[in-house]
Amino acid sequence: MIFGSTSWVKFRVLAVIGAVTILGYIVTRSLAAGPLAAFEPETGSLSAGASIQSQAGSSGNGVVKFAASSSTTPTPSPTVVPSSLEPFASTSPWNAPLPANATWRDEPLLRSNHWYVNSTQYSMPYAIAAPSDPMVSITVPASWGWPAGPVSMAAPSGLTGDTGTDKTVIIQNGTKVCDFWHFVRGSDITATSSSYGCTDVVTGSGFGTSSPFKSAGIRAAGASALGGLLQGYNFTTGVKHQALAVSLLGTLLKKGWVSPAIAEDGNSGTNYKGTIPMGARIGIPAGISRPTGMTSGGNMVWDTLQTYGAYVVDQNYGTNPVVLYADPRSTSSAQVAPLRVWWNGAPADLDLIMPHVRVLE
C-alpha cells in the first residue's frame, strides 16, 4: 500500500499508539439478511431468497484526525489516549459533518420512550493489541464476505466477548481492526467466533462494500462496530469528531437499507414496521438552541448530533427507541450514567436531547 507523506507519518503515529495502548469496546446484537439483505451477520450466510443488490458503499483514502495526547487518563483505562482520535479515512461517512443545506423530517416514535446508552452488555470491548500480547488463533466460519478462519490476531490476555449473549469484541492489530461475534476465548492463544468482519482504521470507510460484498464489521448495516462508539476521551475532552452509532427498535425501522449501509437485519420482513431505513442518519438541525441543565457528557452528545448526526446501524430489542454505545473499557459508569439515568426523578441528558432529533431526508 502506498501512502502520501502526511498519511505515512500518521500511519506511523497510529502504529505507535496501537503498540502501547489497550482499549476495549463491545457491540450490540447484529442480525442481517432477509429478502433484501445479503448476509446474516451472525452466520455471514446468504439468506433464503436474498440477493446482493448493487448499492455502492462509501470508501476512500485518507487519514485519521489526530491532536495532542490527553493528559488525563480516561477512567478506568490505564493508558492515555489522543484527545481527538477518531477512526477511518477523512472521507468516511462517519467523519463527514452534516450537510449545511440539510432537510429534516420529524418522526415522533423516536421519542416514544427514554433513550439509553449501552456500556456493558451489548456494547463492545475494543482492544488495541500491544507487541507483548499473545497471538490468538480464532476459529471462525466464512462470514460477511470474509473467508473462514483460523484468523490470527494479537489480543490482550483475558480479553473475551461482552457479558451478554452476543459476546462481541473489537480487536485492532496495527491499522487492521476486526469485529468478532460470539467470541469465546479458549486459552491465551485460541478462541472461537461465529462471524467476523474487518476494515482499516486509516484508509477504510468504516462501512462495507456491496460489490464485492464484504462487511467492515458485524453491525447489521455491514459497518464496523468501532464507528460511532463513545470513548473515554470523548467524555474527558467533551468532544467527538465523528457521527454516533445508534440502533432503533424494529417499530421504527423500514425495510430496504440505504447507503452507506450494505445490509439489514434478517428478520426485517417481519420486524421492521417503521419509516427509517438501515443506514439512515438522524441528528439535530442547526440553529436549535441547546437545552439547559445538561452535564458535560450531554453537551458532548448534543454537539455531536448537531455537527455529525448519528447513523442507524442496528436493531435493538428492548423498550428504548434509540440506543447509543459507549466503550466499557475506557468509560466509567459515572461518565455514562447522566446520559441515561432518568429513574431518579431528574431527566437524563438524553431526555433533554431527544425532543430535538430529526431524520435527515
What does the model show?
The chain is α/β, with parallel strands linked by helices. It has one domain (5-360). The chain has helices spanning 5-20, 232-237, 268-271, 296-307, 333-340, 349-353, and strands at 104-105, 116-118, 126-128, 135-139, 151-154, 169-173, 176-181, 184-187, 190-192, 195-200, 209-210, 213-214, 244-249, 253-254, 276-277, 281-283, 310-316, 322-325, 358-360. The strands form five sheets. A seven-stranded mixed sheet has the order 1-19-16-17-13-18-2. The chain has a four-stranded mixed sheet with strand order 3-6-7-10. A four-stranded mixed sheet has the order 5-4-9-8, with no helix packed on it. Strand 6 and strand 7 (176-181) form a beta hairpin. The chain is globular, with a radius of gyration of 19 Å. The two termini are 37 Å apart.
